[in-house]
Write a structure and sequence with these properties.
With 336 residues, the protein is α+β, with helices and mostly antiparallel strands. 38% of the residues lie in helices and 21% in strands. The strands form two sheets. A five-stranded mixed beta sheet has the order 1-2-3-5-4. It is elongated.
Amino acid sequence: MDQRGAEIKERRQELGARSGKSWKRAFARTQDWDLVRRLTRGGGRGLARAFLAPRFQLLAPFLDLFELLPYGCPLRAMDEQQAATVTLRSEDRTPDQSRSFKIVPNIAPHAHGSVLVSTGNTQVICAVCLEESVPRWMKEQNVSGGWITAEYSMLPYSTLTRRPRDISKGKLDGRGVEIQRLIGRSLRAAIDLDLLGQRTLWIDCDVLRADGGTRTAAISGATVATALAFAKLIAAGTLEKWPLRSLVAAVSVGMVDGKVFVDLDYEEDKRAAVDLNLVMSHRGEFIEIQGTGEEATFSGTDLSGMLAAGQRAIAGIIGQQRRILHDLAPEIPGIE
């Protein structure tokens, strides 16, 4: 018998003499197994005697024996592993899935075209009106064709707490100015301004309920409202040719808990380490990309993943725009 085997045999004899009980009965006398497991992680008879309550003193010789066993102490606690993060999304969506996209047409009867667009719980009224004039700067610079101007605002009751109107503050909200410029740029990229003539197309987007992605919902909804307005204006003889060259849709993408999420709602947007807004045409062409690390950075691989996820989501939104327009105004010419 080698030296180690002799030590184990000696320890067993000592335990039997001290306790006079079987191992099973000796361990059954303990009351706090979690404490025992924590203390036996380091092992050692001295550690047991230093920290164990008097009623656990019987375990001390067992701990010495476990140190001699080839595979260590059977009570040694497993290394703690961080539980996998499970993120539940609204509408039980997968990370690459957009929220439901719904359109209620003619929400503002006096506008040439209007819709109430809903993406999940976010709701935006988009109304389009054609005005028989152009901005003064176009006249002064002899710029031909028409113009498109967008205005964006959040109604006071659109958020959880009342949001003061801009007029009550005496100045425009910086965020609102940024968004309405984005909406205007996005639609100007899709419309032949020369076919408007000396006219201004006003696009008003008012957020009825905000739950993340209001700017992207406004762009997608304004495209449908604009198409409906053009159908009405052509039917009335105001416009001679179809000015809309492409459908436009937008979606938000972000990095949440290290994963790429598409179409973020408010709670997800708050937790996002990276926030990206993507605007594209139905041909798969980029119109605008806005990407920001929220006190974080992101790699080229992260950016590629977000762009790919956003492209797939926008393709789905444009498919729904096509179906909605076909149902509402079959006379609208197909956009290839």
